[in-house]
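ok so I'm stuck.
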Amino acid sequence: MNRDKSSRLEVLAPAGSMDALVAAVRCGADAVYLGQKNFSARKNSQNFDEETLTEAVRYAHRCGVKIHQALNIIVFEQELAALKECIHAAVRAGVDAMIVQDWGVAALVREYAPDMPLHASTQMAIHSPAGAKLAEELGFSRVVLARELSRKEIERIVQSTPLETEIFVHGAHCMSISGQCYLSAAIGGKSGNRGQCAQPCRLPFQAGSEGMRRCTGENVLSLKDMDLTLKLREIEQMGVTSVKIEGRMKRPEYVAASVTACKQALRGETPDLDTLQAVFSRSGFTDGYFAGKRDKTMFGFRTKEDVTAAGDVFARLRNLYHKENPLVPVQMAFSMAEGEPVSLTVSDGENSVTVKGAPPEKAAEGSRPADREYVLRSLEKLGGTPYYADEKPIDVQIGENLIMRASALNALRRDAVEQLDQERENAVQRHFTDSPLPDFQNRKTGGKPALWGKFADISQLPQDAETVFDRMILPAVQVKKLLEDGKSSDKLLPVLPRFTFSEDGCRELLGQLKALGCSALYCESGAHIMLGKEQGFTLYGGPYLNLSNPVSLAQAGKLGLSGAVLTPEGKLAQLAALSRKSGIETGVYAYGRMALMAVRNCPVRAQIGCKNCGKKGYLLDRMGVKFPVRCDKMENNLSSDNAVSFILNSLPLSMTDKQEQLRDFDFALLDFTVETPAEVQKILAHWQQGQPLPEYTRGLYTRGVL
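replied:
not stuck anymore, here's the structure
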């Protein structure tokens, strides 16, 4: 096996099972990420209980490989005790780092395992320098960047932060920006933010627009798998810390092929991309996001030919990991002197063990005494272990006319290796602080919630908006125009483009708003929070921050938020109980076609083009249900790089007739997206009269999520 000694770029491999972990380690991964049975964003993979987790960590550490545990879902209050035990199990096992999405989970890891490194999951949708700054403030040591970033955008973040950076370089693309997909939850109650994604995006969807006679396409929400294998040297030069392979639900052969390809590329060799594509792909690979070419060529789905190709390579790939590979160089020193115990010292550079055996015998007359070559033949028998003799010559000191049986020499080597194994397995000693779970007291609630309205465009504002709404949320660019025209700022709440891939202009715009008398900002991302904090705005958070437990709400308060809309991924009674324990104002999503996906490569644009869409595009599923697709208005984005399309729910979530159930919340949010001004007026009339809409859904408020 070629031993890589030059690359400083970590290759991070997935493992959904012990077999996959062994394949990753034996093929040269520097680190492996995996999940316990609970609290993992790949709950449907085999995963690890505490016993197998401990076994996995010991094996990996013995081979010089780190273990990163994924704890990257949002959690609810009733799960906090189990979460604490999950953290404790990771500490006992000696895990090297935790990958986290939920702000509250991050706070509890810091509380219970204060010396555990925290990695900000891609589920946090960190896509800009300000987003990385938020992760730093939350105590993370590494950020896993959004998969939708271009090379330039990645480099900009890397240069802006002292944190380690990690990017995906191979494997499946989610259609939606990670952490911002609610499609699986909306359709079947299986939330991607809870590790239960059912991948409905891989089902047949077509694209169309109002006025078109027929839809087109067949799997228009399915992207090809990413592959940046040939870009790894370039990525290394950019200063990225770690390159990550997606695939905790994939077979060991897939892990072996992808790790091998990455290591080959980093050594300057040509990776076998044909085999890599054969083992798993969706009509081939794409580097579209990295290259900044977001077009139809990025789309693809799993074909019969793809499946057939995979079957032909599995047996060959098993040869990559069927036996232990020598990964760890060791130095040895052997001493054999008359009348003294035989001694062997083995060192890996950090750990050193010395074992002793019985004193040697004098060589009988006519027999051959031990010499250097005799000893080396035994000591160099390191097959079946992760060790190999370093290039430095083995230090062998032998007295004259002495003899030692080969069996005794072999036993001495085995004892030394076993002791070195134990030293390496126990090298990481984490500390667990057994403090009690945080206690959140109920606050007084029960009044009528304030009414907040969010509008995609100023044209949707009803004439009596000032009277009806306590707050009116509008794009920041439009709020600026209103203020310049002399409008009062008291009820106006600006919001930046939801994704600020380019922060150019954001700070300037916020400064202008502040100068015009605006004092508050509505935040739909972590980047918004940091940009708003810089200029002293009062901050309010939106539902896409995924706040789902009292610890995450407490963290929101520490970050500077005065209030936030709770996640809509929960039963209403559960969210009401959470609101009562919140130290900040809480809002409930009471009306709106929630964005089920936020996509940077618009499927409607890819299929029929923007001209044919005319901002009236939609997706059609196999049951004939339409999902509106709307892009950000370019004039509100400050930069074309910030343009994102949103796949909206087929029906609006509505609580117009259930307002008495909202009394535990401080405000109710009505979110208007595709509604015409006339439709807005009708919806408001239903709200004011407490009447149900003709068509609506209760979302997850009655059934909850898994």
